[in-house]
Structures are given as C-alpha cells and as structure tokens.
Design goal:
single chain, 121 residues, mainly beta, Jelly Rolls, 5-stranded antiparallel beta sheet, globular
C-alpha cells in the first residue's frame, strides 16, 4: 500500500532546503511534474513502476487502492513524499489552482507497464 516518506528538510534565515538523497527504494529513471490540472489524473496502476509523489506547491489528493485497502492521502507539504507501489491503483484529484505535483519514477515510460482497470469492489 502507498506510504509516506519524510524528506530531510533544513530551514534557516536563508530559506528552506528539502533533500531527496538515499531515501527512495529505487534508482530514478524519470521525473515529471503536473500542474494547471482541471480534471483527475492517473486512473491506473503499474506492473513494475514505483512512483514517489511530492506536492511541491499547493495541495492535491491521491486515492490509492492496492486490491484490499483503499486510502486517500492529502499532499500539501513539500517535505513529505508519498510512495506509490506498482500494485496501487491511483488517482490524483482536488488540485489547488497553484498546485505542482512532482513525480519521480523508477522506470522510463512504457505503455505496456500500465493497468487501466481498477480493482473490483
């Protein structure tokens, strides 16, 4: 099931620095970000790809279902990373107008890695 990772964050009079270093359970193969969203995103799971989601600005919700457990996560802190496992059918929704969702992926894009059908209820 999807789970949180706390990212190392340092704050001083110059500002805030958040680091992603040796905390992800995979080598990074792909990075992208989602913004100006006006409808739900996602709606799939993967065969092998693991994804780390960080809402670096604003907020959004991520719904995850691993076949037995359903959970909704509220992303609104750039020092919190949500790890989505391959088995997690997920959607991203309820984006604030200023939201920017950063996604770090364990694999390069491959359409054959996607499973579009949700788990049965």
């Amino acid at each position: 099931m999807a789970y949180w990772i706390d990212l190392t964050t340092v704050s001083d009079n110059r500002g805030v620095l958040t680091v992603i270093d040796k905390v992800l359970p995979f080598d990074i193969k792909r990075v992208y970000y989602i913004y100006n969203v006006n409808s739900p995103r996602g709606g799939h799971r993967h065969i092998r790809t693991i994804q780390a989601l960080i809402c670096i600005k604003g907020h959004c919700e991520v719904f995850a279902h691993d076949g037995s457990t359903k959970q909704t996560f509220f992303l609104n802190n750039p020092s919190k990373c949500l790890l989505i496992e391959p088995k997690d059918w997920h959607t991203m929704d309820s984006f604030s107008e200023d939201a920017v969702l950063l996604v770090i992926s364990s694999d390069h894009y491959d359409r054959k890695d996607y499973i579009d059908a949700p788990y049965p209820d």
